[in-house]
Amino acid sequence: MKDFHIEQQTRDNVQLVKLTGSLDMYSFPRLEGQLSAMFQQGHHRVVLDCRDLDYIGSAGLGALIGFAKEAREKGGDVKLLNVPERIYKIIELLGFTKVLQVHDSEDRALKSFTT
Amino acid sequence: MYVEKKGLPLTEQNKGISVARTADQVYIRVVGRGTFQNSQPLRRYALETIEQGCRRFTVDVGSCPNMDSTFLGVLAGIGLRLRQDGPTSAGHITIANVSARNLDLLQTLGLDRLFIIEPHKGSGTTSLIPAGAELEKLPDSDVEALARPLDKNETTDLMLDAHNNLVRADERNAPKFSSVTKFLRETVERRRTPNDKK
User: Fold this and answer.
1) What's the whole-model pTM score?
2) Which of A18, A62, A100, B196 has the least CB density, counted as fewest CB within 10 Å?
3) pLDDT tens profile A35-93
4) A42: CB partners within 8 A, 6+ apart
5) Sheet holding B3-4: strands in order across?
6) Which fold has domain B3-192?
7) Dihedral sign, CA of B170, B143, A102, A97?
């Protein structure tokens, strides 16, 4: 199991957050803290790059919906990028794709904030 | 049904949930992740054995690196169900071979007050298996090799029930899972009132 790791960079006024490892109840508070800090700084446009994510728990997904909703209220959003197929299947099965935007291209994810 | 011989090393072939039981005692071993994807067979088996009179459950998580909230909620549901029978029933769940990481999860959710927790003594041991009981693997309990796709409605119901159990076990869990329970509850309600187009 890979250690959970977060890397953040800014591109086109969007916070691009690369996630590595398992996003579970143990590691989620770290992402939660990072998202909360971004929101406090007024950054409500967030893309979570999940390419190297090997697991996401049900509670983590639920919490992301809460963050996405909060971001939308401030004119932003929290979107997912490069979601591995096995994780996408879970997200789709549970209906989370109806409330969380999922992109397969970084450019499209970034542009989606301006269209 | 696949039956494992005692003493086999914990390898890829026995990933998943294996069980062994006597008249009133159940041993459950989780190898690999415990998630909402393998919670349903565990829930079914536990409820069935409770109906048959089993009251003492041991869940060995020594080879389980991680449990998600649904899996823990299903365990909490079993614990709460055993507690329903009152203090004279002597029903309880022991979570055995608990790693520091899993202990942290259990404590964070307040489940250390519902379960008896035993620290990690090493994985692969068979000493916890009740004498005379054979270990057998529950079908579709290896999350990496599910034989059939999960049913959406069944999974949503299971997850909602599990997260409600976590809140019943400890009210401090309510804000932690408010987003996921709200989403799941709305999904279930939409399904029950299909003509209500929102």
Assistant:
1) 0.85
2) B196
3) 999 999 999 999 999 999 988 887 788 889 889 999 999 999 999 999 999 889 888 88
4) none
5) B3-4, B135-137, B16-21, B25-31, B56-63, B92-98, B116-119
6) Transcription Regulator spoIIAA (3.30.750)
7) negative
Domains of chain A: 5-111 (3.30.750.24)
CB A4 within 8 A of CB A21: yes
* Cα B193 to Cα B157, B188, B196, B198, distances in angstroms: 15, 9, 6, 11
Closest Cα in chain A, distance from residue B179 (Å): 5
In three-state secondary structure terms, B93 is strand
Q: Characterize the bridge pairing of strands B16-21 and B3-4.
A: unpaired
Answer for the pair A21, A3: CB distance below 8 angstroms, yes or no: yes
Mutation to test the B interface, candidates A31, A36, A58, most B Cβ within 10 Å:
A58
Q: What DSSP state is assigned to residue B2?
A: -
Nearest CA to A57 among B37, B11, B145, B109? Answer: B37
ipTM: 0.78
Residues A72, B72: Cα–Cα separation, whole Å: 31
Q: Does residue A29 belong to the interface with chain B, where contact is any CB pair within 8 Å?
A: no
